[in-house]
Write a structure and sequence with these properties.
By secondary structure, the protein is an all-alpha fold. It is globular and about 55 Å long. The protein is built from twelve helices and no strands. The chain has a single domain, classed as Retinoid X Receptor, CATH 1.10.565. 75% of the residues lie in helices and 0% in strands. α8 crosses α9 and α11 packs across α12.
Length: 229
Amino acid sequence: LPTSNLLQSNQSILSIDDWNLLSNLTRCYDEYNEFSIIQHFLCEQNNLPPKMRYKLSRINELFLSFINRSQYFYENNTHFISLCSHDRYILLHNTMKYVGSLSACFITRHTGLLDNLAFYKSIEIIYGSNTLNNSYRIINQLNFDSTFFKLILALLMFSTFDYTYYKNNASLNLLDMKSILRIQNIYAELAWRYLICKYNYGQAVINFSNLIRCLFSFFCLNIFSKHRI
């Protein structure tokens, strides 16, 4: 449904502040538009001789660019900016790889990049068939609309999944965990209200359940990849 129709049909579920937050989130994400990266990459590869296409080094650059460009998503987020520089650094260091990687999976799904056999074979060489098969399963789970997916990325930005509390090294500890947990709640609750607004209660439960399953698979894949390295 168009945003205007959603707002008219269920004003009691999403407030004006909620819609403003969704709008700002969309703007933040669109400023580092990864669809343009894929379009440029495909155009570049199609202009090369067949034997020169989808070289491993260029594909590595592509996926690294997803992670590096995700930093813009942080820098334009008002909740992230509101945190102290120390906590911003730790969150950026701990979560940017997840935000960039999951965003790459989402873009890959919506551009059908893995349907390109030459591209598929190249990344299979880089990551291995097991990792690629697991990634492909996660990609197929990302059947969310773009607005909900941006909320997922916002949740990941403030995730403490990869965070360890160090008793003997305060410089590595988050200073304002209370604020970070509050921000997590803001995006989690907004994601739930958005689903209720767009669908119905039953479908919202299914979508939120799919989200949890998808994130669990995604984190497990990252842990597996770390141990392989």
